[in-house]
Amino acid sequence: MATKSVISVASKKGVKVNYSKPHGVLQKYGEVGAQTGVAYASPHRLIQMLLDGALDKIALARGYMLRGEVALKGSHISWAISIIEGLRMSLDQQAGGEIAQNLGALYDYMERRLLEANLKNDPEMLNEVSGLLHQIKGAWDAISETARNSAPEVKVLSGSSST
Known about the structure:
The chain is mainly alpha-helical. It has helices at about 20-40, 45-65, 70-90, 95-120, 125-140, 145-150; strands at about 10, 15-20. It is globular and about 45 Å long.
């Protein structure tokens, strides 16, 4: 009977990593990298990261859909919808005016298409939303460094309210 060599390391935060499963190690590395990226990211970079995340979740959902893995497809589509909802909710309707309203309507449309793609098991609908997100991301990525640095400071609101 062969035995597997398992190396476990506990980090300072108490996260245990099992090195007998390299995929798990890479996932933990990615989680730490994402947390670090969010902690030090500019507001512009945070939006880029959210767009990347939504695109990644849609791509994974497409793969799960094509392989018939219903639960994983549904969870990744739900995750993409949540990210897009976060983008929509972060729009400043007053400062953004018509552009923010149009972008909000587009985000709403994408959320509905993702729900429909999940219900109908239609990868073309996923492709449509992915294409729209790529267009938004391309425009977002084209914003110059000067414009990014001159943008007003963004205040982050916590989920709790003090009354």
